[in-house]
Design brief:
CATH architecture of the largest domain in chain A: Orthogonal Bundle
Number of helices of chain A: 10
Radius of gyration of chain A: 22 Å
Distance between the termini of chain A: 84 Å
CATH class of the largest domain in chain A: Mainly Alpha
Oligomer: homodimer
Largest interface: A-B, 32 and 32 residues
Order of helices and strands of chain A: HHHHHHHHHH
Strand content of chain A: under 5%
CATH topology of the largest domain in chain A: Tetracycline Repressor, domain 2
Number of strands of chain A: 0
Largest sheet of chain A: none
DNA sequence: GTCTATATTATGATAGAC
DNA sequence: GTCTATCATAATATAGAC
């Protein structure tokens, strides 16, 4: 019996080596989803292993089989969030003409993602957990985000929509300040409204359409 | 002896009714200052009675003689911060011409105050403590802030600097989105730089000088 | 991979002596 | 108005049985 069981188990592991791994990935997915819920409800700082375990229906120590610490969960959420946000921006860019319209569409898609993933977006751009520092890998993703914006601005200059000053570094800071302002106000004052409704998200288009005045063609 | 002591105490209280009260006010002042330090160092959420008592050099229960709860301390910081910020805005307005320049000067003074009082500013405009809800009195102060901005915008319209659309409600949302965006970026990315340095606070003037394009005279 | 038990530390708050 | 003692609760994390 004992040998048979052993063989059965080993055999199963050999035949379906991914079965356990898949279960594991599902659990990790569930943990991250619940973490997002907790952060949305109790604030980004309000995430705790205890509450996570409670909602998952396990005891807190079990979580250590999936993540080595609470900070590691923040880390996973940060990296995943950054990638999702980058992809949202990319898709927004692709679904529009190049140039200024593309930039606006890309950033709006990113903004929609942020609004739909408030807690993670706060983690990404507002640094609400002082003891959490994103891993170096996360830096590479944010560089890509910057490159997308730089490219869209360059397109707009090439198309004659913006003046050459939009190719300088400050233009990216200007654009990021606009989107962060809109999102900050939406988060703080009307966090449950979707993009396009309320007093603040419509300001995004208004502000972006001022860019030609900020970077005049003869400048 | 006992009667004498009683009389002495009562007498002292009658002759200098303010002496104890003044000591008390000094301690309250000290508590609020330390609370700001803690919040700046550990995040707005990181404020705790234990750390507060540690730094003040007393035991935690002693704090209850001055504030009935931790939330009451947040409340006091919120109200005081709002008043200080309002006064900064008022002084900035008074030190400049009326109209657009006044609005810019007022908001810049408010921005300087926010940067110099980062933790309290976060408490005011970013709501980082989900279980804290500002008292109704605080609402009146923020209404005054809005009125100052509305007045400055109306001046700018009267002076022919901005078109009539700047008298509408959306103009105030636009202006507040600009300042919040600049401050969000400064807080998250370069919290220790003073106003005017770094990549983001200079964006404030840039964005504000786009207002005439947002509210054209013929609009 | 789950659990119980535990260590350690911290929290906000109250009772009551002095 | 200060303290000690205490309550009730919560947190992260580890050891080790199963």
């Amino acid at each position: 019996m004992a040998p048979t069981d052993e063989v059965t188990q080993t055999g199963a592991a050999a035949v379906r080596p991914d079965r356990r791994a898949r279960r594991r990935q599902e659990t990790i997915r569930e943990i991250l989803d619940i973490a997002r819920d907790v952060m949305t409800a109790e604030g980004v700082n309000g995430l705790s292993l205890a509450e996570l375990a409670r909602r998952l229906g396990v005891q807190p120590p079990s979580l250590y089989k999936y993540f080595p610490s609470l900070m590691a969960i923040y880390d996973a959420l940060f990296l995943e969030g950054q990638r999702q946000n980058l992809q949202a921006m990319r898709r927004g860019l692709q679904g529009a003409e190049s140039g200024l319209d593309g930039l606006i569409a890309g950033l709006e898609a990113s903004g929609r993602w942020c609004l739909a993933n408030r807690a993670v977006a706060e983690l990404l751009f507002w640094r609400p957990v002082p003891s959490f520092h994103p891993s170096p890998e996360a830096f590479a993703v944010s560089m890509e985000m910057v490159e997308l914006q730089r490219g869209a601005l360059a397109d707009a200059v090439a198309k004659g929509q913006l003046g050459p000053a939009a190719n300088e570094e400050g233009a990216i800071y200007l654009v990021s300040t606009i989107i962060v302002g809109v999102l900050s106000q939406a988060f703080a004052n009307e966090p449950d409204l979707p993009w396009g409704e309320g007093r603040f998200t419509p300001m995004f288009a208004t502000l972006m359409h001022l860019l030609p005045a900020a970077f005049p063609l003869d400048g």
